[in-house]
Design brief:
By secondary structure, the protein is mainly beta. The protein has a domain of 74 residues: RNA polymerase II/Efflux pump adaptor protein, barrel-sandwich hybrid domain (OB fold (Dihydrolipoamide Acetyltransferase, E2P)). It is 0% helix and 48% strand. It is built from no helices and eleven strands. The strands form three sheets. Strands 3-4-11-9-6 form a five-stranded antiparallel beta sheet, with no helix packed on it. The protein has a four-stranded antiparallel beta sheet with strand order 8-7-5-10, with no helix packed on it.
């Protein structure tokens, strides 16, 4: 058996693996419950702010100022840990401001899009 360290969502776990033959029994497990896809919008003065759900690099902004977006519509894509994460709008509204630039590094909770 070999012991490996695995990093999942920033936490390090030690796992022990053993080699198995083709005749070995397969064990199935239940998947862990998924985390929330995006944080709630912060509403202040009638404006909703779509925030980054994870720290990473902004790969694309899918909307422009003046666009009307629906709740759940993808408004941006953030790359984190070599995965592309779609950022959905948390509210319906019209894009009044784009706070993030493509290629910019953002932290969890940073404002990306302002809806009016």
């Amino acid at each position: 058996m070999k012991i490996y360290k695995v990093k999942v969502n920033g936490k390090v776990y030690e796992v022990e693996l053993e080699a198995v033959s083709e005749s070995a029994e397969t064990i199935k497990t239940e998947a862990a419950p998924a985390q929330a896809a995006a944080p709630k919008a912060a509403v202040s003065g009638g404006n909703a702010v779509v925030k980054a759900p994870i720290a990473g690099k902004v790969l694309s902004i899918k909307v422009k100022v003046g666009d009307v977006v629906k709740k759940g519509q993808v408004v941006a894509v953030i790359e984190a840990m070599k995965l592309e994460n779609e950022v959905p709008s948390t509210e319906e509204g019209t894009v009044t401001e784009i706070k993030a630039n493509v290629g910019a590094a953002v932290n969890n909770g940073d404002a990306l899009i302002v809806l009016g």
